Amino acid sequence: MPHDINGMKLEAGDEVVVRCTITSVQPGTDYCNLSLETVEPMFPGDHKSSFTLNGKQVQRLQAPGLMILGIPATNLALTYVVQANNEVHVGVKLVEDVLNG
Asked: Into how many domains does the chain fold?
């Protein structure tokens, strides 16, 4: 069964987030191209994917240095649980805890 990094089922048409690091910027007058490398390697192994996108195709995750309750925002992840009655519970966890299960 196809699933994401958190074990959520994936289907055609789902929108997903691919965490990447910008490795270089090719500026232009009206737009720029970005060379990107995935944060997570391709499983199994340690090969990271590289590709190019236009700057208008991406969205920065947050402002650099943003802190929430004294914790860098880059270390936090929004979590949610959908119960059988479709009630949604939202929370915030450390990214490290989310990735390590």
From this structure: 2
Q: Do 50 and 24 belong to one domain?
A: yes
Q: How far apart are CA 85 and CA 62, in angstroms?
A: 33
Beta partners for 66?
none
Task: Say whether pLDDT at 50 is over 70.
Answer: yes
Nearest partner of 52 among 41, 39, 36, 40, judged by Cα = 36
- Would you state the pLDDT for residue 11? 87
70-90: average pLDDT: 72
Return d(Cα 7, Cα 17) in angstroms, integer. Answer: 14
Q: Give the CB-side neighbour count of residue 8, counting CA atoms within 13 A.
A: 15
DSSP β-ladder status, 32-38 and 50-54: antiparallel
Question: Are both 43 and 31 inside the same structural domain?
Answer: yes
pLDDT band (50, 70, 90) for residue 48: very high
Mean predicted lDDT score pLDDT of the chain: 80
